[in-house]
Design brief:
Mean pLDDT of chain A: 93
Order of helices and strands of chain A: EHEHEE
Number of helices of chain A: 2
Low-confidence stretches of chain A: none
Shape of chain A: elongated
Oligomer: homodimer
Chain lengths: 92, 92
C-alpha cells in the first residue's frame, strides 16, 4: 500500500481522522490503513467505527494487526520503552 | 468459548490482566479472549503484547474484532451514546 493511503492517528478530534479516511476513499483509494500507537489506539478504533457506521457502510475491515514498537531511551533512563501499535486496513 | 476464558480489561494496571491471561493458559485454556471498551482498548493491546512478548511466546493472536456498543442515555440526554469495543482472541 502506498504511504499516502495511511492515516496516522494522533491527538486531534476523531472527526479530523474520519474526514481524512473519507477523503482518501472518495479520491479513489481502494484501501486505507489507519495506524496508531499507545493511547491513540482507542481513538483509531473510534475512527474506523464512525467511518463504517455513519459515513461509508460499504467499507469493510480487511485486517487488524497489533504489535510493539521499541522507543529510544530518554531522560536519563537506560532501558528502551515499548509502545503498542495497531494497524487497521479498510477496504471498499 | 466459555465465558470463564474471557478477560475484561478495565482500569487496573496492565500486569493484573497479564496475570489473569497467564493463569487461564496455565490452567489449561486453549483460547483466551481479551475484551475492552472505550479507552481501555489501548490497554487491551498492551496486555496482549506483554503476554506474547514477555511471558508466553507460543501464544498467537488468532483473531481481532472491533465493534460498537450502544449505551443507554444518561443524565438528561436523550440520545444513546456509542462506545467502541475490541475482542482479541489468543490461542496457544
Amino acid at each position: 500500500m502506498s504511504e499516502s493511503n495511511a492515516v496516522l492517528i494522533g491527538r486531534k478530534p476523531v472527526m479530523n481522522y474520519v474526514l481524512a479516511c473519507i477523503t482518501l476513499f472518495h479520491g479513489g483509494a481502494k484501501e486505507v490503513e489507519v495506524r496508531a500507537r499507545g493511547r491513540a489506539i482507542s481513538r483509531a478504533v473510534d475512527v474506523v467505527e464512525v467511518v463504517r457506521r455513519r459515513f461509508l457502510p460499504d467499507v469493510k475491515v480487511k485486517k487488524i494487526g497489533i504489535g510493539t514498537d521499541e522507543m529510544a531511551p530518554r531522560g536519563g533512563d537506560d532501558t528502551p520503552t515499548h509502545v503498542s501499535t495497531i494497524e487497521i486496513t479498510l477496504t471498499q
